[in-house]
Amino acid sequence: MRQQNRIFSVILVLFFTLLTSCSKNPQMDLMDTTLLPKPIAVSATGSSFELNNETKILVNGNSEELLRTAQYLASLLKPATGFDLKVESISDEPDSNSIYFVITALDTIFGNEGYKLIINEKNVIIESNGAEGAVRGIQTLRQILPNEIESSTVQQKSWFIATGEIQDYPQYSYRGSMLDVARHFFSVEDVKRYIDLLAAYKLNVLHLGLSNDQGWRIEIKSWPNLTAHGGSTEVGGGKGGFYTQEQYKDIVDYAVTRYITIIPEIDMPGHTNAALASYPELNCNGKATDLYTGTEVGFSTLCTDKDITYKFIDDVIRELAEMTPGPYIHIGGDESHVTPMENYIPFINKVQDIVISHGKIVIGWDEIANADLKDNVIVQFWSEVDNAKKAIEKNAKVIMSPANKTYLDMKYDSLTKIGLHWAAFIELESAYIWSPDKFVKEINRENILGVESPLWSETITNMEEIEYMAFPRIIGHAEIGWTPDSMREWNDYKSRLIKHTERLKIMEINYYDSKLLSVEKE
Ligand code: TNX
Hints:
The chain is 33% helix and 19% strand. The strands form three sheets. It has an eight-stranded parallel barrel with strand order 8-9-12-13-14-15-16-17, surrounded by six helices. Strands 1-7-5-6-4-2-3 form a seven-stranded mixed beta sheet. It has a two-stranded antiparallel ribbon with strand order 10-11. It is elongated. It has helices at residues 2-21, 64-81, 131-144, 188-200, 225-228, 245-257, 273-278, 307-322, 341-357, 385-393, 403-406, 428-432, 463-470, 473-482, 490-506; strands at 41-51, 56-60, 86-90, 98-103, 115-119, 123-128, 159-168, 174-180, 205-209, 211-212, 215-216, 261-268, 328-332, 361-365, 378-381, 397-400, 448-455. It binds ligand TNX.
């Protein structure tokens, strides 16, 4: 009898060994995946989960935001897999074959954007303090899936992902890019694609430069000539264009799903020729200027001592605030070379009050630090260290956009066909090797809200050119904003980026194929 028992248990063990070795899930190592930006912690458990057409996307509870987030994931997975994954809300733990979103109280260090991604053979679990963290976690999940997940057409393949756990949260709460839609105008579709590309690298801000000397790009119902006339051209004399309020709201909604804040900028008192050409009364001499299609800066100014100027600004900011759910409005304030400082300071002071009266937080380029900064005003450092120091002395937080590191319109090297180079040539290495809190001696971690990469468009005319100048530099900036400095190292980043270029190709991103990305020959 005992003998029989022994034989039985040997058979049982053999049976189970056979069963597990026959398990269709291949062994995979989560440590081998290429993640950008680099997460805080990754641990691997050596097996895999298979996403297939039976996988369900489950949401714990009925949070509308989390359900919308789950739909967003379904829409990301659909083109390449062809799967119509069902989104369902549940109240218990999931059984198996699901991607399961759950809001739990994670440690406070995870904040709004942190997440835990737990992958076992049965389920993928995304835990976060809210839907925003879930959206960041989704971007990591995308990168763990095979590169082909980014294809826009159905791929016949199995979708296995390595098991393990990732814990992740950002260093800086503000990580963005600016797109100048004024020097050249870009369509709603282009802006949406840019938003998608930012989201993929966990950026959370898109700052839109909506007005400049060469064009006014946002419909203001109380001042219709701004777009009718001021929106009618662009650098080089093309037909320009503008967003209707409906179109702007469509962009904002698109960004909301991805937890990207849209920050509208109306640049003033300089960079205002398009407005000055549209309304004679905004000029000190009462005469409208001509439309401008060149690329000089610093020649225009609103008339800072006319009452109508402030009525105009109040109307514009009110309409803009009404259609902008995000907390910020950017007032520009840069390069106002023909506005004497004794006029500039009271002007910026008044404009801050207008923005605040419409319930928004003011952001301005570093020159605004010369004014009397109100509480909570944010200064965007781009060039003048002295301005940045003034900002800090006045207790303002700073967004770091040093031109010689973050300006996406700077050429990569002397051979780059588009772009400018007044600040620097910025190769991938230079764009990556710097730290926001070590860039200016006086600006420390606690002074910094985050990092932003501006893409000025004097020389940029279409989406291919946007992608060429932004990618892959902006991936490095995204990592600077997300990953602690102590975990960043150029060679490690470079080797991840080299592997990641396969994915960039499938994403159909027209990236700059730097010589730094060619694998060194032994
Ligand atoms: C400086 S940066 C500007 C822009 C130009 C840009 C070109 C800043 C606040 N002003 O008006 O487009 O350089 O790189």
